[in-house]
Structure formats: C-alpha cells, structure tokens
C-alpha cells in the first residue's frame, strides 16, 4: 500500500443571499469532470483560517473574513497533480452579495482544469448529474441554515 501525503486544506462554503452555493467544475485529464467548493491546501506556516481567506480571494476575487470553522472532513483522494493524499479539510461558511467571480488569481493548473463555475440551489445539487464534493454538501448547507 502506498503511503499518502498529509494534505491540510481549507474549503469555503460560499453562498449568496439567495442561498445558492458556488462550485467550480474540474476537468482533469485522468478522470471524469467533477465539481468542488472553492479552497485548497495550506501554505507552509498558514492557519486554516488564513488559507480560507487566501483561497477565497485567489479563486473568486472575493476578499472576506471566512469566520470560524464550521465543519471538518477527512478524505483520501488523488489530487489533480496525481498525488495520493490524506486530506484534513476544514470548512468555512461565507455569505456574499458578490456573485461575479474573478479568476485572475488562478494558477496555471487551475486555469487549465477549472474553466467553469456555477451557483447551485440545493434542489439543483440534488438532481445534478456530475459528482460534486463534498458529497454531503446539501446536508451541510441545510445545517448552516439551522444555525
């Protein structure tokens, strides 16, 4: 069994005032397309909260405090770069009035594999025909509404 690299990551549950959530569509060369929340791996010395704000700014152009961590997931997967990882993902909930997404901060890899984004309602997520992550995103969003 191959050892997996630890990958601490911050992910953002970015919703607009209508309750829709932003997802990016990834189109890797080695697997079918999938959708994912904004976010990514921590930089060395960075806290989860610092990474959440940086990733939000880089991937969407929105610069907001991401507030406290609202969920945590551990997952094993292969990154777009082909690295097997054990991810410790911390989720941050952010609501925004801004729905225009700026991708100027995307890396070359992100520019290649993240060409689409979309705001989804929970009903649209429930019937969407491509996988999205986290797989229980609809339930996570429903819990956020209760808070």
TrEMBL record:
Cofactor names: Mg(2+)
Domain of life of the organism encoding this protein: Bacteria
Domain Nudix hydrolase: 5-143
CDD domains with a match to the protein in the record: NUDIX_Hydrolase
Recorded family membership: Belongs to the Nudix hydrolase family.
Pfam families per record: NUDIX
UniProt protein name: NUDIX domain-containing protein
């Amino acid at each position: 069994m191959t050892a997996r690299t630890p990958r601490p990551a911050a992910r953002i549950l970015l919703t607009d005032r209508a309750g829709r959530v932003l997802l990016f569509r990834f189109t890797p060369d080695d697997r079918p397309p999938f959708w994912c929340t904004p976010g990514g791996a921590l930089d060395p010395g960075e806290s989860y909260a610092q990474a959440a704000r940086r990733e939000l700014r880089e991937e969407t152009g929105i610069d907001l405090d991401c507030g406290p961590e609202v969920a945590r997931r551990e997952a094993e997967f292969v990154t777009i770069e082909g690295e097997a990882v054990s991810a410790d993902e911390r989720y941050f909930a952010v609501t925004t009035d801004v729905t225009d997404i700026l991708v100027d901060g995307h890396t070359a890899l992100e520019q290649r594999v993240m060409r689409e984004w979309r705001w989804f309602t929970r009903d649209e997520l429930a019937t969407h025909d491509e996988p999205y992550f986290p797989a229980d995103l609809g339930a996570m969003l429903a819990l956020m509404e209760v808070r």
